[in-house]
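Researcher: Here's my situation. A collaborator sent me these components and asked whether they could plausibly form a single complex. I don't have experimental data yet, so a predicted model of the whole assembly would be a useful starting point for our discussion.
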Amino acid sequence: MSAPASTQKTTPGGNAVLDLVKQPIVVALILIAVLLALGEALSPGFASLQQILRLAIVAALLGIVAAGQNLVILGGREGIDLSVGGVVSLSAILAGNIMSGQDGGILPAVLACVAVGALFGLFNGLGVTLLRIPPLVMTLGMLGVLQGLLVVIRQGIPSGRAAPALSQFVSQPFLFGLPGIIWLWIAIGLFMAFLLKRTVFGHRIYAVGSNEQAAFMAGVPVRTIRVALFMLSGMFAAVAGICLLGYSGSSFANVGETYMLPSIIAVVLGGTPLAGGRGGYTGTMAGAMLLVVLQSILTTINIDESGRQMIFGATLLVLMLFYGRGKAMRG
Amino acid sequence: MTSLSASPQRSGFAAAIERLPFLPAVLILVVLIALNGWFEPNSLGFRAVTGLVSTYLALMMLAIAQTYVVMAGDIDLSVGAILSLVNVVVIVLMEQWGGGGLTVLVACVVGILTGLACGLVNGLVVAALRLQAIVATFATSIFFTGLALYVLPVAGTPAPAAFWRTYGGRILEIPFVFWAVAVLALLLVALVRTRLTTLLLAVGDDAQGAFQSGLPVVAIRIKGYVLCGLFAALAALCVTGDTASGDPLVGGKMTLYSVAAVVLGGSALSGGKGTVVGSLVGALIIGLINSLVFFVGTPSEWQNLVQGLAILIALMAGVFVGRRVGQ
């Protein structure tokens, strides 16, 4: 209903403004603005530039994971990647050990982590395409493997430290007052928009996601594309893991786990349905920001953890009512 | 889907799997039992089996819970949160009411009602409001976890002795957990005799077709979620009996295991194909993999990895074999 394409067909009696408001990204942006205003009212300083930047850094971490999740979901056939959280944790711990506080170690760490992320994505992709294991099952199993691997690694090696330059990149102003990670996120946003809208690969993702059979008949290498999507998802999760290391300074237990389901929620709130085939990353970026602002507002309010979680869960459900709904059955 | 691609001559084994999709799982189970017995003969003894059942009865219940929604093509990522909520509700009520025999029973009933209510909420949200099951039940799981934290902010309140002594004890020389399994079996047989299983499978196989042939699709899916809530509550009672304490986060890790158990049992997450027996076997497979990894002497820090790999391979093999034969 809220697909970009459907807005071109103006419903009788509808108008352009109403159609615009139905766009998921517009809804998300309006909600972000409303929440920021609400936060400012509740606790002055909440919507200060400084504070918004801090929220944007947290949102960038989630948003980078959600980029890969977004791609896998767009590819359709129940595409989903539950292993992203494990890859984020693994990447953070690997990067911390490779760089162990030295700036010179950043490049090798990035290369190694992205390669590891791509490798796990490759396993997922091959399982899903060659053995035709449903993505949810395959990536769920892979998550178990990753969690086990993390236990082994944490026994064997000391928890690493982030290089100073990496920490600076994530949390200190880098260019025009914005930290490097924000620029990275913007770059990823542009890359995703270019990839999805301007490249053959991007068009094929939508083709595979909306009708795999037709895409296959038209000569689209369906399997290769699906494997590539899972590899990209692993790579994005790995990049997020490195940034997370820079954000927290040192890698600690299962930091990435908290990204698994929120990355999916960010995609859905951004207007990409789990069925795949339509949607895009710009909405997902807004979705990630929306989630982070919402969580932050709840920590500002003076209520205990239980109340916070209840409000968060209930709010998510209400937000989903705006877009995530399926079609009613008709006879 | 399966009948269209059926080859004219199918072997007896293939036909058997068609009717009993959990056969590959049973095969894996038998192999695992044999391996467990090989590496640790005592593991097949009465005492060890009792221990295994009392530890994994909760996961078996939770896998059954998940099965009823998976049958209809849905999924419930909140089963673990429901389990936690029921666990703390029962614990806190028993504590406040003094922990006598009757109060324990009433607390359990309230716990089961809580599970049913959670299931109803999930059903309304997913089927009536038409939200996507994965994200919607994740949202409700956050809500249920919040409720559980409200009821009992930190883990630790012990269960009254009357409760865990019963769960770990014996009635007429037979361990209580076996009575529980027997009652569970009767309950499952009773459920199989109702039309609900058939209806859930019909909806999961082809929701549009089911709707067009006049089935109340929304109501059927809601019933699936309510049933899921019921079994999640029963799982919570098992956990409470096994751990003898309350923990608002106890079920969190079990959600994904319940999904894995359902898949191991030969059910299709896309719906329309699933058996509760398979999920029971799936839960036992997870339990036996865990104990086997221990018995072969895997160093403790490697155990999680080996378990994860074994479960992944079992998942892949199960799906692969099930489909190969089904075609």
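Model: Some features of this prediction you could bring to your collaborator: Residues 1-8 of chain B have pLDDT under 50 and may be disordered. Chain B has one domain: 12-326.
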